[in-house]
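anyone seen this seq b4? input:
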Amino acid sequence: MTSVNDVDRALRAAPPHALLDTLRPLLTDVWGAIDADLLLADYGLTVLQPVEEPGDPARAVSLHNSPEGRAFGSQEPHEEHPRNAGRTRLHLPVTARGERLGILTVLLPPEPVDPAVTDELVQVADLLGHAIVVAERDTDVYRQARRIGRLTLAAEMQWELLPGRACARAEFAVGAQLEPAYAVRGDNFDWSSDAHRLTLSIINGMGDGIHASLLTHLAVGALRNARRAGLPVADQARLADQALYAQHHGDQHVSALLLSFDLATGSALAVDAGSPRMWRRRGTAVERIELEAQLPLGMFEESDYVPQEFGVLPGDRLLVVSDGVYDALSPLGEVFGERALARAVSATALLPAADVPRAVLDELARHRVTEPLDDALIVCLDWSGRPAGTSSD
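predicted toks r here
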């Protein structure tokens, strides 16, 4: 696999903004490619936009009814043979540790692509995904390609705070999405895993615009500070509560659901400090996991938080939503509610975790019809668990 190794070395040495320009001649020299294009999914997960000329709406490709979108959704290479085009278009998912970034389209001669070539190009697209994640530290090129409109300042801050929209490893897969994607205010999510635990936090900062975003930034920063100090989930809540109260003296608070999972056993600890709610699908049964409500973070000085225990089994799916989902109103004043959420969880049972939030939000949009009055956040966790005898290393 010397050719793939050459790609890896070239991408590591490339200027951050020039990954595609660096890749093109290698694709031509090694695999006989005629050309290549890189498209990234926009913040709202509606279209794929080219990194080159990202502001041209004519070049945007639908995520829902296009060959590129099919490859993105299936996370499998898709071979396209346009009539009279004289070439084959091979669409390859560009993904990094479960985070679906976009599609690398490689134009090849018109004959069917050899499976060995496809396998190698799948590896190239994977290397490109990891290179993009690293390069984003030093360039705005890829972030600019992700937007079909201008983000509000609050939304810019919220997206920069996120760990990503998806993450996957052997024990679990997580997918999440925020709406309105280009004007989100106070909702946020965070996750982190190590050899032993997965920690999830779902945040809903009160207020509107930049004030809500600043409040959420303080809460997430405090939670990360406590988590990185090795504190358990209840102490993470206490530290964030104290930080928020010290800054706002109870005038501003944050609703939060904090979760910590043992990767070996599925045993979980939860702190329910506000409005985010959680559902579980086990087999064909969907039920809400009822937790004892505790005070939102920052409401009172030195609040105490007590973790509650529950468990997940291999095959379980958890769905966490903010109040902007279950309290959303139809034009007739009907609440989306728990029954509709349970139906949505069942209807999306066959989708991977990364696709579930967008699918549920699409259902919510059909119910709501009008523009949202509040942020809507959905986090989906699929639990596989760790097989007995498997090392945590």
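The mean pLDDT is 93. The first helix runs from residue 2 to 13. kinda curious what u guys think
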